[in-house]
Design goal:
Length: 351
């Protein structure tokens, strides 16, 4: 009887000990997971904030070339880096799918696409394919470096690595510098250095005019930005605009015509707009152009307005412009954080 009692209490002690260890282990795992999700709470953005994005829940995301990505909910600023699961602290592009997942793309030293579901960073592995489709729910990613003619399409399950067909007249290799979905659902690819390509789900059409393939002062700018204006005309970061499938092009058997626009207004004031880096259309259909060192230019369809962006009385180097869910305009910069338009000027964003 004594032996039986002793064995019973011994087993009970072991089970209690094991349960305690399991409980503690679970607490430790949950604690680590909680830290992983939270990231680091910081008081300010890093200096290199290249891209800005606001998601469906009105959360702001700031992508850096040096310090990962920042999440801002209007109260708290959280920084995610490689120690929290990002494979790279350089962020070149931010997007969101219909399910609310956020995607961070790094182009250097190699293309890396990361899916963030709010809890985990998952690096997507591309599959080489010729599966060209055009679905409204797909997320498209560009391949800027290496000049391999590639783009990526993600359908929520598989990341397809696709090779964009070369234009017949310009068989050189190229990189894809921008992707834009137009009002009709077509996908446009802005390249360096062979022009702009439109994919309508069935065929590919190219615009290979000199002003979208050549850089006036040498070098290679590429088509870094594409948008439609209020009239449905397209802009490929030059001072010209393009009409697509208008009556003139139908008669000439081309699907586009080129028209001078900004460049014909005022030669002096538009000299900095021959090659711009980024463009946004505000809620009043004005076009806003970002240049590297010449500030920001607004075009209302008739006249242009120039906005300098400075720090310590010196022009700063700009990279991108973004319109948020409220219609507010933001600037991404190389070395000076993020700027926001206050209605009169662009001022540096601070908590």
């Amino acid at each position: 009887m004594k032996l039986t009692t002793l064995i019973f209490f011994s087993i009970l002690s072991i089970l209690t000990s094991c349960n305690g260890q399991t409980s503690n282990s679970k607490k430790n795992t949950d604690h680590f997971k909680e830290l992983f999700i939270k990231g680091d709470t910081v008081k300010e953005l890093g200096s290199s904030i290249m891209v800005i994005y606001q998601d469906k829940k009105n959360i702001y995301w700031f992508g850096s070339w040096e310090t990962g990505v920042y999440r801002y909910d209007g109260k708290t600023l959280i920084n995610y880096t490689t120690k929290h699961g990002l494979p790279n602290n350089r962020i070149d592009e931010i997007q969101q799918d219909e399910s609310g997942n956020i995607y961070f793309t790094s182009f250097y030293p190699k293309p890396t696409i990361v899916k963030f579901d709010g809890n985990t960073f998952t690096t997507l592995s591309p599959v080489s394919s010729n599966d060209w489709h055009l679905k409204s729910t797909d997320v498209w990613f560009r391949h800027t470096y290496d000049f391999e003619n590639n783009v990526y399409r993600y359908d929520g399950t598989t990341l397809y690595e696709l090779q964009l067909p070369k234009p017949p007249s310009l068989p050189n290799p190229f990189g894809v510098y921008s992707i834009y979905k137009d009002k009709k659902g077509n996908i446009w690819f802005g390249t360096n250095p062979v022009g702009a390509c439109r994919y309508d789900g069935k065929s590919f059409e190219w615009i290979t005019e000199e002003d979208v393939t050549e850089f006036r002062n040498e070098g290679a700018n590429g088509i870094r930005s594409i948008t439609e204006d209020k009239n449905g005309d397209f802009w490929f970061n030059t001072e010209n605009r393009y009409s697509v499938y208008d009556s003139i092009t139908l008669k000439s058997h081309k699907f586009y015509t080129r028209h001078e626009s900004i460049g014909s207004l005022d030669g002096k004031n538009t000299s900095g707009l021959k090659e711009y880096l980024s463009i946004a259309k505000d809620n009043n259909n004005n076009l806003w152009f970002v240049t590297y060192r010449s500030g920001v230019w607004k075009y209302d369809g008739t006249k242009i307005t120039h906005y300098t962006v400075q720090a310590n009385s010196k022009d700063i180097t700009l990279f991108s412009i973004y319109k948020d869910n409220n219609g507010d305009l933001w600037l991404g910069t190389h070395e000076n954080g993020a700027y926001k338009f206050n209605g009169n000027t662009f001022e540096k964003f601070k908590l």
